[in-house]
Amino acid sequence: MLAALSAQTTRALLERSTVVSLTEGQALLEVGDEVRVAGLVLEGTLREVYLDEQGDERTRGFSFQGDFVGAWADVLARRPSRTRVEALSTARVRCYDVRTLLEVEARAPDLQRALRLVAERLYVRKSDREFELLTMSAAQRYDALLAQVPEVEALVQLRHIASYLGITPVYLSRLRRQRRAGARPRRG
């Protein structure tokens, strides 16, 4: 995002940002919190999680280095966060105070464009995710995830990948075995 901004806008944002270091399992944002920060992942992997009434987790998505992270839909809807954002590994996130971000945006057309592009990418990602969940089998969703993020299994625990795919870890193990077996040359 910062690469597309003027030097003046970049300076204004950097002066008002902080770099937050997170340890594995530490939350950047909790469900029910007022959404005060949005950020860019500098290093590490984060997971966005929904919690149901029983406290069971459903992985909404992952944020990797260079990705925007936060509960932007909740900012736009002016509601408390419906998402927990937690580090899956040691991570560093450049955090921007949402109010400051919006104040700078009001005076900076380049930031307006950059935030619009972020919102467009998030919308496309959400639309793609809905399409996958509504039209694809679990195996197809798994293949799509691997195509989008080939290194995901090295960055994310399998139980979180299963949660993201909407399947059990046992079923993910079966899909992985089938995938490996299908990749082997057959002997005639």
Provide a compact summary of the structure:
By secondary structure, the chain is α+β, with helices and mostly antiparallel strands. It has a domain at 2-107: Sandwich (Jelly Rolls), CATH 2.60.120. The protein contains eight helices and eight strands.
Walkthrough of the structure:
The protein is built from 8 helices and 8 strands, in the order αββββββαββαααααα. The chain is α+β, with helices and mostly antiparallel strands. The protein is 47% helix and 22% strand. The protein has a domain at 2-107: Jelly Rolls. The chain is elongated. The protein has a 4-stranded antiparallel sheet with strand order 1-8-3-6. Strands 2-7-4-5 form a 4-stranded antiparallel sheet. It has helices at residues 7-15, 72-76, 98-107, 109-135, 138-148, 152-155, 158-165, 169-183, and strands at residues 17-22, 27-29, 37-43, 46-51, 57-63, 68-69, 84-87, 91-97. Helix 7 (158-165) crosses helix 8 (169-183). The longest helix has 27 residues, at 109-135.
